[in-house]
Amino acid sequence: MNAAKLSRTEFVVLRDLVYEKCGIFFADNKRYFLESKLMPRLQAHSLSSYGEYYRLITTSLNGKGEFEKLLGLITTHETSFFREMPQFQILKSELFPKCIAQKQAGIQRLRIWSAACSSGEEPHTIAMLIDEHIILSQPSWQIEIVGTDLSETILARAKMGHYTQYALRNTPPAYRSKYFTFINGTYHIKQRIRHRVKFSQLNLFDPVKMQLMRGFDFIFCRNALIYFDLNSKTKVVESLYKSLIPGGYLFLGTTESLFGIQNEFKIAQFSGSVLYQKPL
Question: Which of 70, 92, 153, 214 is packed most tightly, with the most Cβ within 10 A?
Fold first, then answer.
């Protein structure tokens, strides 16, 4: 079977479907990208056109599962433990102590959300930091770490907690030896860290599910807004704002900014990084 070509009409209907469902936008110059990414799915189903593939994901009983596979192909899951280290330094050295001091006389609870967490390196990094800097000194505290992603497939990997050496390339040696077991060429994260993170599927563009995400002290949503156009970014950031408690912090990727998107957050300057704080 000859390789199918993605026509302009097929590109538009597929692009619009993705945008409607999850806010990810593809400009006109991304037609070849979408064609090449989806070609394996046409071959897997023995389809001869992208129009047939569109009908598969919109009308068949397996459409939901296939749409998830589509999203897994068009988004990047590149991540690692301790990625963008200055932000984790800020979290453990400045924000954890500040949070503990503020809540010591009240409800001793800490809630952290890792949005678009991919295969779990980010929330597991947070869990290790909490184990190092909070659990021993504050054993009575309620700690909740939530990791969410659009893809059920990538979340299954996150829940398993098995990682390559490449995923640990930024991990300090002390953390590597303390929190991982090396088995048959793979690093397995220790059970007490793995069980500290609750993973669940979540579409950041789903207003109903996003309303349930409330009361977080810290939200990590790093390198996810790059997939959205301005309207989608505005919608997602507004939801994240509502998810934070007053005084809570939003962590974005170091190359990302809320300039021109949202002005309710306060800019919080730290050494080596800029965070966004919801006013008290």
Answer: 70
